[in-house]
Specification:
With 158 residues, this protein is α+β, with helices and mostly antiparallel strands. The chain is built from 6 helices and 7 strands; from the N terminus they run ββααααααβββββ. Helix 3 (39-52) packs across helix 4 (59-68).
């Protein structure tokens, strides 16, 4: 299959439908105005990332993220680009989060696990949680997917 797009008196040829979608996303993000000589590179890189993404990120969201952050990410590995996009999306979700229950390693229990309620995200990997009526700070370890709540030294004063 060959798909041809004429845009601004230039001809762009693509072999896959998703490439035309990425091209249109680039135009909608004014990428052609900010990086006129890198439009084809953008389409190729977004396409490679999209095809390798195990998180099944929506193509439009991935295209938008990459257009907004092109200068910072264009020389990164595909894995690093996808990781940064994932973390960006997760951060956005956490900023609008509601309270939820989770398990955490509790300091007063010498690291034993217990249920907490995550109340708020107050900083970069800094959460206010409730453990048995005690509000304290916790962090989330992304590598082991676990919260660590310090109900001894980082209590939140009422």
């Amino acid at each position: 299959m060959k798909i041809t797009i004429e845009y601004n008196d230039k001809i762009f040829n693509f072999e896959q439908g998703y490439e035309t979608y990425i091209f249109c996303a680039a135009i909608n993000n004014d990428f052609d105005k900010t990086h006129p000589n890198e439009l084809k590179d953008f389409v190729v890189l977004v396409g490679e990332c999209y095809l390798k993404d195990s998180n099944q990120t929506p193509l439009g969201a991935l295209s938008d993220y990459m257009a907004e952050n092109w200068d910072k990410i264009k020389n990164l590995s595909r894995y690093d680009i996808l990781w940064k996009n994932f973390m960006n999306n997760l951060t956005k979700e956490l900023k609008t989060m509601n309270e939820y229950k989770a398990m955490a390693h509790i300091n007063s229990l010498n690291g034993e696990m217990a249920e907490i309620t995550v109340l708020d995200k107050v900083g970069d990997n800094d959460y206010i949680v409730d453990y048995k009526g005690v509000k304290c700070h916790a962090l989330f370890n992304w590598f082991v997917c676990a919260y660590y709540a310090d109900d001894i030294y980082t209590r939140v004063k009422q």
